[in-house]
Design goal:
seven-stranded mixed beta sheet, single chain, disordered N terminus, 11% strand, 9 strands, 44% helix, membrane, alpha/beta
């Protein structure tokens, strides 16, 4: 790319020189010549037109390459800034279903990894990226127009990605609002964390017409034919359901769970001592609505927690071919997560970026 710019820049003066030193210059000695109207069809008119065309042809591509994207896409930037969740959901929904993730800029490599795995199952068209900063909004929509939306206000970017920080809490506590909004627009919604990888199509597992489908975060091995009811509470009096993979139908029951989740988050604000995340509140919401909402626990073999999949080799062998979505949790830190995905052959970004709708980032 840089060589072509260099060559073009070398050519430029040559073009100008050649065209402007026309063999019959308008002689400045005869003042009458200056008053002669230049006909666009006359020789001079055509030469000027030609010169302009060449200048535009030569300069524009190099200017485009050198100009910051910001200047070129002012219009598209304001378009995405005003893009609403309703417009975005309508654009991506297929069969009344939207697949949603929420991403801040540091997680873009994980977003791309997740997208490659979804594209392999032919479900990428219904993905909506909820961008938690403007950089993510523009990056995604520039490469994949219409697939990212930002719900203002954008959280504080500096802190949004450090697990256990207040910024991370504020970032994740926006999640149930986004999901409730999509349910209220009338769509089925599947939420995924982007540190997940699809090995198979999860949709066949969303059987029946339940309100909310979810996965257990406990690493204890369950029998293959385990119950699909909400598991019994653990030591802290609540269950350990993961808020990482949720599927909901736009029912009153599902909306009630989201409203309760929002209430629980407001009741348990972040503090230095507690360093909470959004998962306990999701569990309290499920526990408190269990009697009135139709809940469905997804099979562990298909949707294992990272604490099981990455730590129990025997179990992985026994459930070979049954795993559908793998969650890279029970570990914190970008580098550690990437390394673990690489060790298990689940880091697809390096060799398969062309399979992602975003291409190589």
């Amino acid at each position: 790319m840089s060589t072509s710019i260099h060559q073009r820049q070398q050519q430029q003066p040559h073009h100008h020189h050649h065209l402007l030193s026309n063999p019959n210059p308008i002689s400045p000695r005869n003042p009458l010549d200056w008053r002669r109207p230049i006909s666009i069809f006359g020789r001079t008119g055509l030469l000027i037109l030609l010169t302009l065309m060449v200048v535009v042809g030569v300069l524009l591509p190099t200017m485009k390459m050198r100009m910051p994207d910001g200047l070129l896409s002012r219009a598209s930037v304001s378009k995405w800034r005003d893009y609403t969740l309703a417009q975005a959901a309508e654009f991506v929904a297929k069969n009344g279903t939207v697949i949603v993730c929420a991403v801040s800029q540091p997680y873009l490599p994980f977003l791309n990894n997740w997208l490659i795995s979804i594209a392999r199952q032919k479900h990428q068209d219904k993905v909506l990226v909820i961008a938690e900063d403007y950089a993510t909004l523009y990056t995604v929509n520039q490469k994949w127009p219409g697939h990212a939306v930002l719900v203002p206000p954008a959280p504080d970017a500096q802190t949004a990605h450090k697990f256990g920080s207040m910024g991370f809490f504020n970032f994740t506590s926006r999640r149930p609002r986004h999901l409730l909004n999509i349910l209220e627009l009338g769509y089925n919604v599947m939420y995924n964390d982007v540190d997940m990888v699809w090995l198979a199509d999860p949709f066949p597992y969303l059987q029946g017409k339940h309100d909310v489908y979810f996965t257990d975060d406990m690493a204890a091995v369950k029998p293959l034919n385990h119950s699909h009811d909400l598991p019994p509470p653990g030591k802290k009096g609540r269950t350990y359901i993961c808020s990482c993979m949720i599927f909901m139908r736009p029912t009153n029951g599902a909306k009630l769970v989201m409203k309760k989740w929002i209430e629980e988050l407001q009741a348990q604000p972040w503090s230095r001592a507690k360093k909470s995340n959004d998962q306990p509140a999701f569990n309290w919401a499920l526990n408190r609505t269990a009697g009135e909402v139709d809940l469905y626990l997804l099979p562990q073999a298909a949707f294992p927690t990272g604490g099981l999949y990455f730590k129990n080799k025997t179990w992985v062998q026994e459930t070979k071919g049954m795993n559908v979505i793998i969650h890279n949790n029970y570990i914190t830190g970008f580098e550690k997560k990437i390394k673990r995905f690489q060790d298990y052959g689940l880091w697809l970004v390096d060799d398969h970026a062309q399979e992602s709708p975003l291409g190589k980032l």
